[in-house]
């Protein structure tokens, strides 16, 4: 009953008359609404859509009053095996969205049944035709099921470690729009059996120390522009990326006449080298931005937007998952 009353109170407050200029503020100035927009109760999603104000370069919301968000419970715990990798085989949680031998998106396995990715990759409009499969445990992109039937061209040992899964359900964030809330989940059609080549990455916990601008993290993927003739970038990548202040991303976008409202829900990263190498030029959307913490790997952000631009200072815009942990846990259904 208390939950219902809280929801009705929120709806009543959201349904007020339009905001004036004073009440339409940056999302960072409305902390209670921050939590609700990232972790929205299903009953008020349509009402929450009415809270946004018109803005070109900053996310602004109608913050006429304080909002009492209902408490959410993290009901599904991660497997204790998360975040560990073999001394040779890196990033065993990497998931590739494969169609016709090409990697179209990337994600990270977070438990036996779910892959964390961007909302753009989890949307039914992207994978709804059932042609897209999820590939786990691979490290050379050309080794898909079709190629591995021809042992004369592929080393047999390279074809024994990966598994292909169907997409049972894609779950984009219900309030996703462009760079805002660009996070999603993929529910696989069957449970994953962990081994040294397939293992989940950790989600942050309350004790996790999040990275700050200047810190160097890792990202990975199989690259959407793999060249089957030259075999360029056929291996899973290990790329260093540096967190920079969000304002640095915003300034680059403005200087390039790109209108993109960023907010505290985003992180910004850039290549660690000013020499823009081919493997850093193209970016794998949906892939994790990872940090090694107490000998375990954690995903801190999901790669949401990037620009294929030869400027070495071009930004990579990510979704900061620290705001979405409740949504992630509550969007997952139990599995056997």
From TrEMBL:
Show the Pfam families listed in the entry.
Trypsin
The record's annotation in Gene3D superfamilies points to: Trypsin-like serine proteases
**SMART domains, A to Z:** Tryp_SPc
Choose any GO biological process term that the UniProt entry carries and state it.
Answer: proteolysis
Q: Where is the Peptidase S1 domain?
A: 80-333
Q: Which GO terms describe its molecular function?
A: serine-type endopeptidase activity
* Keywords annotated in UniProt: Disulfide bond, Glycoprotein, Signal
* Database matches in InterPro entries: Peptidase_S1_PA, Peptidase_S1_PA_chymotrypsin, Ser/Thr_Proteases_Immune/Dev, Trypsin_dom
Please give the family membership noted in the entry.
Answer: Belongs to the peptidase S1 family. CLIP subfamily.
Q: What's the protein name?
A: Peptidase S1 domain-containing protein
């Amino acid at each position: 009953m208390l939950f219902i009353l809280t929801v009705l109170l929120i709806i009543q407050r959201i349904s007020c008359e339009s905001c004036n200029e004073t009440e339409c503020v940056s999302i960072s100035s409305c902390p209670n609404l921050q939590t609700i927009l990232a972790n929205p109760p299903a009953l008020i999603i349509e009402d929450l859509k009415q809270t946004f104000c018109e803005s070109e370069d900053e996310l602004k919301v109608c913050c006429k009053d304080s909002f009492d968000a209902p408490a959410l419970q993290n009901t599904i715990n991660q497997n204790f095996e998360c975040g560990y990798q073999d001394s040779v085989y890196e990033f065993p949680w990497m998931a590739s969205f494969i169609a016709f031998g090409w990697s179209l998106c990337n994600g990270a396995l977070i438990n036996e049944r779910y892959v964390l990715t961007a909302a753009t990759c989890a949307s039914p409009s992207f994978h709804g035709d059932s042609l897209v499969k999820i590939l786990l445990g691979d490290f050379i992109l050309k080794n898909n099921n079709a190629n591995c039937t021809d042992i004369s061209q592929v080393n047999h040992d390279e074809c024994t470690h990966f598994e292909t899964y169907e997409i049972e359900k894609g779950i984009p964030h219900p309030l996703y729009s462009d760079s805002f809330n660009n996070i999603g989940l993929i529910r696989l059609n069957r449970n994953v059996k962990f081994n040294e080549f397939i293992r989940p990455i950790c989600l942050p916990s309350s004790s996790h120390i999040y990275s700050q601008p200047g810190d160097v993290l890792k990202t990975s993927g199989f690259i959407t522009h793999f060249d089957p003739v030259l075999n360029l970038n056929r291996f899973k990548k290990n790329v260093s990326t540096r967190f920079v202040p969000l304002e640095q991303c915003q300034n680059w976008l403005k200087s390039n006449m790109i209108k993109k409202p960023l907010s505290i829900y985003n992180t910004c990263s850039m290549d660690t080298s000013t020499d823009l190498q081919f493997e850093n030029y193209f970016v794998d959307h949906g892939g994790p931005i990872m940090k090694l913490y107490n000998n375990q790997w954690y995903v801190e952000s999901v790669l949401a937007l990037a620009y294929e631009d030869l400027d070495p200072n071009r930004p990579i815009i990510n979704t900061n998952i620290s705001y979405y942990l409740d949504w992630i846990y509550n969007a997952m259904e139990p599995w056997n």
